[in-house]
Amino acid sequence: MCGIVGYVGSEPLISYLLSGLSKLEYRGYDSAGVAVHTGDSIKIFKAQGKLDNLKNILRDKCEAGVKTLSGDAQGAAMQGFNSFKTSEEKAKIGIGHIRWATHGIPNEINAHPHVSPESKVALVHNGIIENYKEIKEELIAKGFEFKSQTDTEVIAHLVEDCLRNTNNFGQALRCALKKLDGAYALGVIFMDDPDTLYAAKKSAPLIIGLSDKGNYIASDIPAILEYTKKVIYLDDFEIAEIKENSVKIFDIEGNKIDKKYEIVPWEPVSVNKMGYKHFMLKEIHEQPDVIRQTLFNRLICSSEPIKLDEVKLTAENLKNLDRIQIIACGTSLHAALIGKYLIEEFIGIPVEVEASSEYIYKRVISNSNSLTIGVSQSGETADTITAIKLAKEKGSHVLVVTNRPDSTMARLADSLLPINAGFEVSVAATKSYTAQVLAFYLLALKLAEVNGSLPSEKLEEYKKQLLQLPQKVEMILNNKKEIHACAIKFHNAKNFIFVARGINYPVALEGALKLKEISYINATGYPAGELKHGPIAMLDETMPVVSILTPGKVYEKVLSNSEESKAREARMIAITSVNDSKLDSIFEYIIKIPQTDELFSPILTTIPLQLLAYYIAEFLGKDVDQPRNLAKSVTVE
Ligand code: AGP
Known about the structure:
Blueprint lengths: L2 E6 L4 H11 L7 E7 L4 E7 L2 H11 L1 H6 L5 H9 L10 E7 L14 E2 L5 E6 L5 H10 L10 H12 L5 H9 L6 E7 L2 E10 L4 E5 L2 E5 L11 E4 L4 E5 L4 E5 L4 E2 L4 E2 L15 H7 L1 H9 L19 H6 L2 E6 L1 H18 L3 E5 H4 L10 E7 L5 H12 L3 E6 L5 H5 L2 E4 L12 H21 L4 H23 L1 H11 L4 E6 L4 H15 L2 E6 L16 E6 L5 H13 L3 E6 L4 H6 L2 E4 L9 H18 L18
Helix pairs in contact: 1-4, 5-6, 6-7, 9-15, 9-16, 11-15, 11-18, 15-16, 16-21, 17-21, 18-21
The site of 2-deoxy-2-amino glucitol-6-phosphate has 16 residues, from helix 11.
């Protein structure tokens, strides 16, 4: 996580650094900082906490701004920064950082940029330096002093140490990089090289934006989209020397590399809440359209085959598949578990689902007859990227399901299945999960079509179910008052248990994750049948148990498990489409969803749980869109 930006050119520097960082706030919000080269010195501004704190510091520095700014209006603030009436006004080169703390607490000292002892080097870093302790000890032995607890500070010191043996700045940087183990995306400026912005990358994303008005670096495209669509994707072990009118790229040995730029096919995304109190609530409400968008051109009517041209496996390859592995993290992992259920049910091929962080530390069993599916909203989750690389090394075809077709994972993929959920701002994933689950329905049904594993009437019936989903989701959203009332009733609970069986078991996991990540209430998801093997000991009159019951194979079983919980005086909540008088005696609260086949229920059962988590967190006054300790894109392993 962490986000970095940099700019060299004659446009208002601070404006770009701040607006770029504001587009990267999803990557962390523990602290923010910028460094600008004023010609005779490098000035650093840092603040603990969100970017607004840094903006306030800079606003105080801005003479003209102080007079003209009113309130917190960001537009006015940006105008204030444009007329920065101090020596920073002359600055043409600068770097910025937004932090998600890994080494050292989130305070001002640990905030980036970090500076070398003689202030010859300032840099910002995204990633983790694994051997920083050893390097730090060596540098301390040489007389270097450290101020922060970060791994990043060692890089600044190391570069300054290398500068003792050369006055070539690029060479000094390369000398330092060769000593680093781990991941880095770096933006570096040198006191004695006031015209050049240096950038380097290994295992963390970094792009260079090219324009007539100077050149940019950033961790992600939205940070530069307002200024340019011409982008160079830096690859691992590449180092860029960027001036106002030129960009040169070298490998780690200093050999020049020719790289072409690409035009990003995006328009600047204007992200606003459209009247909703939080992005999360807005994104929950976007789900009917997200479903339509993901189905668009892929499933037109139930009597026609599904179009999934993005999957580059031939019909022959698909028939020969002997193993499917799905790798993902967090909410994407829960979508993957639903995918496993669907593929096994529709095609009968064994599917394994694994958390990427576990997959990468065990023997990888894949070959050319296996398909590995990586699922990720951001396409930048470090563990999933490593897992995908390992699967590729073993010869497996890699299909990536992501919301970011421009991401690192998308570029590694043999086949890319974009999910079209649109930009998701809230750290808690909602609409991207729904689109991922939908992508698995499409994939599983496509595989069933190719393999002939489902009778044509069943296929047609299933496709009809998919086409009906948007309206059914709208019905749930129209009924949200009921969920709001339930949230108010239960918001004081200290713990929650979510239970389900079969295809809805991953929904229980997702309901628990949503609640804990935004409300900080302890919540756990279990297969309902597992309660009696231990967790039932936790039940008493203070424990809410949310049971997911849809008509089908496991309905009666979940109902019995719910009765067992009720018998232990737990406070029972049902998410159900069933009209069954038996429910009234068990459940204190019944949240109804539209009638649906059990196999097609997980999207419909998840949405009330998203809303329940949202309303509880909102009622408790939590920072719903930016929960503590989290970041939208987890770019460290
Ligand atoms: C979801 O609400 C979480 N914030 C988190 O679990 C997330 O799903 C996980 O970090 C994976 O991210 P990805 O989908 O971008 O790979």
